[in-house]
Amino acid sequence: MNHATQLHICYISLPRSAFTTLQKRLFPIYFRSQSLLLLLTIVTIPSQGPLTLIAHKAAWIPFAIAGVTAALNLLLYGPRTRQLMIERIHQETRDGLQKQNADDDGIDETPSPEMQRLRRSFSRNHAMSIHLNLLTIGAMVWWGWKLASNLKLEL
């Protein structure tokens, strides 16, 4: 079962607050692990380790792409998305309390302007994080393809 399927099952099965708690704890670990694995890959490059990147200029391109996109997710978009997710939950609570205090006749079911702003901001940052993650994965697949194409298999 892949990561997306597992998250979808969690999204469907867990209450929203539990799902939010799971995500806010899971993704920082994921982005740190992604960055550490990228560094481990650089250190273990065949034949001369990181010196290979200096000797073969084209070899560093996938690492540069993966490094920049992983760093952006680790340091900027991951934390920003996490914070906006938490702020959205707090805003839902504030909006819910306001609705409870209002008369049932005058309740407007549209989200508050602050909630609309938080949702837009969260969506933009979350989409950016997803796309950066896909670019990181794509760059590492590119490196894997380059590495595998250099293998000499004889039967």
UniProtKB/TrEMBL annotation:
Q: What is the lineage of its organism?
A: Eukaryota, Fungi, Dikarya, Ascomycota, Pezizomycotina
What is the protein's species of origin?
Answer: Nemania bipapillata
What's the name of the protein?
A: Uncharacterized protein
